[in-house]
Amino acid sequence: MEWLDSFWSTYSTLVLSTGTNVLLALSIYVTLACGLLSLANAGFMAIGAYSAVLLTLHTVTPLPLALIVGAIAAAMIALLIAVPTLRLSGVYLAMATLAFGEVVRILILNAEDVTGGALGLNGIPQLVGLFEVISSVTVALYVFLRLAHSRIGRTIAAISQDEIATELMGLNVRAYKLVCFVIGAALAGLAGALNAHFTFFISPNEYGFERAVEILAMGVIGGVSSPWGAVLGGTLITALPELLRGMGRYRPLINGVILIMIMLYSPKGLWDGLQTLLRRIRP
Amino acid sequence: MLRLSALSKNFGGLRVLDNLDLTVPSRGVFGLIGPNGAGKTTVFNLITGLLAPSSGSIEFSGERLNGLPPFMITRRGIARTFQNIRLFKEMTAEENVLVAMGEHPQYGTLKALVPGAYRRAEDSERKTARELLSRVGLSAKAHQPAGFLSYGEQRRLELARALATTPKLLLLDEPAAGMNAAEKQELIEEIEKLEASGLSILLIEHDMRFVMGICGEIAVLNFGRWIAQGSPAEIRAHPKVIEAYLGSNDPGGN
């Protein structure tokens, strides 16, 4: 099993990141699924990461508790900002949530006493391994898959297709959107908390605009017709740069071209595209 | 059952509805007619809470509705269809009906997580949805995406979806638009059945034969005001109605 050991020592971070990225993709999946175009999830990830790390770094909090605190902290902030921002929709919501992400980043940057400012937090205990990541992804995926095929999933799909008609079916559209937004935030917070505990180090710049767009890309590339889309999107966005390592300095270019091709030929995301392809092969 | 009192709606400086009073009885088919732009759909939007009245009140079974969000109004027992069909086009006909049944779910979130319980709850909901579809003659189309249905079928699906919310009062916004003669006849029969089952129906329609044939009482709206109300025979003979639809003989234009 020597090859496995050497594989793990080289790629463990990549494997674990794939897991947390799938969680992030699921977090944006649940917001996108009910038609909310949000760029706040990088900010929620930061909130989750910092609150969990501050606990494990300065106290003897056990990891599971720290993870839960990370998720809940993100969810609470989400609840707070949801009240004014969820009145917006489309690009206006994207703009407001983008601003929120920047506010979080700048707050962390300036609260040097607590967060270490631009230098970030160092020497985070390595508490997260394959078990924690896989079990989190499995539980989240199971719950989402079940709900997607239930009354709740149908309602969310209806909201994304026609909000007013859904409301007039006696369904509380605002409440559904709020819950989706908050659950997305909790998942992003959990992903941040997990991620921080296998990277030694976190700093505010990891959770900026680029990360927000990356998370959105995972959701959109994968597609929101099924939670499996998020799994695909999260995995692809993590793995693609690695697979293209041989391309040298053309890597970002090829990376971009591939993503554009996916959106061009499968605008509803990879999962939907694969389904269509499968149906065509064996009808 | 439904009572509008001194209801007005302004869009900016434009007075779209002016001091409307109306009582819709708890049984029977009530027609709301008037030339284009008279404000008929605005009345529906006010009743269902999509728009807030500028002044006046809306009462349903003695309860004041204005100020309630639309979903609460639906839960009080008012359902509607739309002039420009608003189905969930990517969902199947059956799923469209299932969404509307979400208001009184037979299973909660936790049940959805347990495979066996989920299956049973889902099956019983689907059975109810099928019954509603067969009621409007769409049994065979249950698994077709709503967007693929014909215009008449889409209108019937909207009706089934509205019924899935178990309304006491049904608002139909031009239910016969785009239907052929046979479809219209079927629709009349369906509306009569609904009426017989104790539902109150308020409908907007431009097809006069349809309206006259089915409504017990008709109110006529023009430029946001009532110009007449009464039985179909009275409306047909009413000089102001004829004037609103055909124009006046008076060369002065009044």
Outline the structure in words.
The complex is a heterodimer of chains A (283) and B (254). Chain A has a domain at 14-208. Chain A starts with a helix and ends with a helix. Chain A has helices at 2-33, 41-58, 63-85, 90-110, 112-115, 130-148, 151-161, 163-167, 173-196, 209-222, 227-243, 251-265, 270-281. Helices cover 76% and strands 0% of the residues of chain A. Chain A is mainly α and 283 residues long. With 254 residues, chain B is an alpha/beta fold. Chain B contains 10 helices and 10 strands. In chain B, the strands form 2 sheets. A 6-stranded mixed beta sheet of chain B has the order 6-7-8-3-9-10, with helices on both faces. In chain B, strands 2-1-4-5 form a 4-stranded antiparallel beta sheet, with helices on one face. The longest helix of chain B has 21 residues, at 115-135. The mean pLDDT of chain B is 89. Chain A binds chain B through residues 142-143, 146-147, 150-152, 154-155, 157-158, 161-162, 164-174, and chain B through 48, 50, 69-71, 74-75, 79-80, 82, 86-91, 95, 98-100, 102-103, 105, 107, 109, 112-113, 115, 118, 122, 125, 161, 164-165.
Strand order of the largest sheet of chain B: 6-7-8-3-9-10
Oligomerization state: heterodimer
**Spatial gap, N to C terminus of chain A:** 43 Å
Order of helices and strands of chain A: HHHHHHHHHHHHH
Which residues of chain B form runs of ≥5 with pLDDT under 50? none
Please tell me the overall pLDDT of chain A. Answer: 92
Q: Based on Cα principal axes, name the global outline of chain A.
A: globular
Amount of beta strand of chain A: under 5%
Number of strands of chain B: 10
Radius of gyration of chain A: 19 Å
N- to C-terminal separation of chain B? Answer: 36 Å
| Helix-residue proportion of chain B | 25-40%
From the helix content, strand content and strand pairing of chain B, which structural class follows? Answer: alpha/beta
CATH architecture of the largest domain in chain B: 3-Layer(aba) Sandwich
Report the major sheet of chain A.
none
CATH topology tier name of the largest domain in chain B: Rossmann fold
Please write the CATH class name of the largest domain in chain B. Answer: Alpha Beta
At the fourth CATH level, what is the homologous superfamily of the largest domain in chain B? P-loop containing nucleotide triphosphate hydrolases
